[in-house]
Amino acid sequence: MELSYRVREIKPSPTLTLDAKAKALIEKGEDIVSFGAGEPDFPTPKSASEEGKISIDKGKTKYTAVDGIPELKKAAVRKFKDFFGVEYKESECIVSPGAKMAIYEFLFSVVDDGDEVIILSPYWVSYPDMVKMVGGVPRFVETKPENGFKPNPKDIADALTPRTKCIILNFPCNPTGAVAQPDLFEEIAEILKNKDIFVLSDEIYGTMIYDGKFESFAKFLREKTVVIWGMSKTYSMTGWRIGFAFGPEKIISAMKKVQGQTTSNPTSVSQYAAVGALQREDEFVKTTTSEFKKRRDLIYSLLAKIEGIKCVKPEGAFYIFPEVSAFLKGQTTEALSDFLLDKKKVLVIPGEGFGAPGFIRLSFALSEEKIKEGIRRIQDGLQEFSNK
Ligand SMILES: Cc1ncc(COP(=O)(O)O)c(C=O)c1O
Known about the structure:
The chain is α/β, with parallel strands linked by helices. The protein has two domains: 5-43 and 283-386, Aspartate Aminotransferase, domain 1 (Alpha-Beta Complex); 62-280, Type I PLP-dependent aspartate aminotransferase-like (Major domain) (Aspartate Aminotransferase, domain 2, 3-Layer(aba) Sandwich). It is built from 14 helices and twelve strands. The protein has helices at 5-9, 14-27, 46-57, 70-84, 99-110, 126-133, 153-159, 182-192, 218-221, 249-260, 268-280, 282-304, 333-344, 368-386; strands at residues 33-34, 93-96, 116-121, 137-142, 164-169, 198-202, 225-230, 243-246, 319-320, 346-347, 349-350, 360-363. The protein has a seven-stranded mixed β-sheet with strand order 2-8-7-6-5-3-4, sandwiched between helices. It has a three-stranded antiparallel β-sheet with strand order 9-12-11. The longest helix is centred in the last third of the chain and has 23 residues, at 282-304. The radius of gyration is 21 Å and the shape is globular. Bound molecules: pyridoxal-5'-phosphate. Pyridoxal-5'-phosphate binds next to α5. Pyridoxal-5'-phosphate (PLP) binds at residues 38, 98-100, 124, 170, 174, 202, 204, 230, 232, 238, 243.
C-alpha cells in the first residue's frame, strides 16, 4: 500500500525536528546552548494565563464559532490597527489554530493544481511544502545578503508567468531578519496591482522591529492581500496555537469553510487567553521587543568579530543568518550543525531547509549569557570543523 503522492513529496519541518532533538538532550541533563528555538523564551504573559484559567473554571470549554469567538476577533482587529495602522472589519478576520494553519487554509483556498506560487528565498521552511501540499508549484526568487536579503522588484516582475497565482512575502523575515521598508512594498504593489495574483503577507514578526520602519503590505494592495499575524511570537504564546488572517471577505470566508471542515475551531480556552493578552499586555510587547533588540546587538557584534563569517544585521524578528561557507570545505551546513551539536553542545539550524546552503540560522531567543557562551562554542567548533 502506497501513501499519497502529496505526502511523499513533503519533508518534516527541519526546524521542529532539530529543536525537539536539542530539547530532549536538555531534558536528559546535557548542557546544550540552543540557537534553534523558533519561539520567544519569555513566559506567556499573566493576563493570558489568567483568562485561560477563568475560561476553564467557567466551563467555556465547548466548540466555538468556526472563525473564532467575537471578543477575540474584535480584540485582534483593534490590536492589528494599533500596531499596523490598517483597519479591518471583523468579517475580514479569521482566528485559526496557529498562523501556520491560516497560511495553509489560504493556500488551499487560492491555489489550483499546477498554479505557481512565488516564494522569496531564503524562506521560512514550511512555505514550499505547504504549496506542494495543495498541488501548487513553488517558484523561487532569490534575495542576496549584499542587498540585506531584500528582493529586487525587477526579479519579482521577471518571475511572473501566466500560471502565477500567488506570492508569499514574509517581512520581518524568518530566517534573515530582513525588514522591507515601505518604499519597497510600494514598488512590489505597483508590479502586482493590475495582475490576477493574490498576496500572502506573513507579518507574524511585524511588531518586532529594531531599525527602520515597517508598514503592513495591506496598506499598499489591500484588495489582493491576506495578512497573517498571531499570538505565538508577539505574546510568547506558541503552544496556545492562536493565529489570525486579515483580508478580503471572499478569501476569509473560503478559509473559514476549510477550517470548518478540518479543525472546526481554534481551542476555546486559548482564545479567551488571547483576548486577555491583546487587551492588557501592551507593556509586555514593548519590554520584550527592547530585550530582543539588545540581544540582536549583542549577537551581531559577537558574530561580526569572527573572521570568515559574513553577517547581515537583522532589522526585525529574532533570527540572524550568517554565511559560514568559508568553514565548510565542501561539506554541508547540515553536517556542520550535527558536528556542533555533538562536539560543542550548541544547536544551530542548517541553511539548506531555508533554501540557502552555506548559511546557518541562529535564533536569539535566549539570555545574553547563553548567547555569549553559545557563540564561543560556535567559534571553536567552526575552526575544528574546517580543519577536520
Ligand atoms: C514566518 C513564520 N510564519 C508563521 C509561523 C507560524 O506561527 P504559529 O505558531 O502561529 O503557527 C512561523 C513560526 O515559526 C514563522 O516563522
